[in-house]
Write a structure and sequence with these properties.
There is one protein chain. It is built from ten helices and four strands. The chain is of the alpha+beta class. The chain has a single domain, classed as Alpha-Beta Plaits (2-Layer Sandwich), CATH 3.30.70. The chain binds guanosine-5'-diphosphate and magnesium ion. The site of guanosine-5'-diphosphate (GDP) has 10 residues, from helix 5. It catalyses: a 2'-deoxyribonucleoside 5'-diphosphate + ATP = a 2'-deoxyribonucleoside 5'-triphosphate + ADP.
Length: 166
């Protein structure tokens, strides 16, 4: 019975992961981050490099408009190239957020020294990576970065083989 419950809790998920401009500026850091993704059993479903206009940055982070760091964040996110990934694995959203560590770099260094933000983050704004925080935001954010990608279609195709372990 317990075993069945354990199996059922293994849910295949997609998440949006973004390497922010501070990290993309450093090729060795990019290589290390890509390796961390692979070492943590994520499957790279899509990957692309892009540069945001200021309006894209404002739209993506609209939930934070009015916060003291909003302008800084918007400027930073449109300051240079980024790399966006659609990542898949069991419980992908939580695993990627755990791997990134807490939002604030100094907090990350004290509480999760192995995390990406602890090891590579520069400041609370320039904190290396983004990750979706729920199934709903993952779907919305994947649509924002990859408008031609359908989460539902991908799930329909891949989920049965994940469940049967093939
Ligand atoms: P995340 O989901 O961990 O990325 O954190 P949030 O959604 O709360 O914030 C979005 C982004 O805004 C963060 O990744 C940071 O780049 C920036 N940010 C959030 N909180 C702060 C803050 O207190 N100070 C500064 N400077 N930037 C912040
Ligand atoms: Mg967030």
């Amino acid at each position: 019975m317990l075993l069945t419950a354990g199996r059922l809790s293994k849910v295949l998920q997609l998440t949006l992961a973004v390497i922010k401009p501070d990290a993309v500026a450093h090729p060795l850091m990019m290589e290390a981050l890509h390796q961390r993704i692979l070492d943590n059993k994520f499957v790279v479903v899509r990957c692309k490099d892009l540069v945001w206009r200021k309006q894209d940055s404002e739209r993506f982070y609209a939930e934070h408009s009015g916060r003291f760091f909003y302008q800084r964040l918007v400027e930073f996110m449109s300051s240079g190239p980024m790399r966006a990934y659609i990542l898949a694995r069991e419980d992908a959203i939580r695993h990627w957020r755990e791997l990134m560590g807490p939002t604030k770099v100094f907090r990350a260094r004290y509480t999760s020294p192995e995390s990406i933000r602890a090891q590579f983050g520069l400041t609370d704004t320039r904190n290396t990576t983004h990750g979706s925080d729920s199934v709903e935001s993952a779907k919305r954010e994947i649509g924002f970065f990859f408008p031609d990608f359908s989460v539902d279609e991908w799930m329909e195709k891949e989920e049965p083989s994940f469940r049967s372990g093939r």
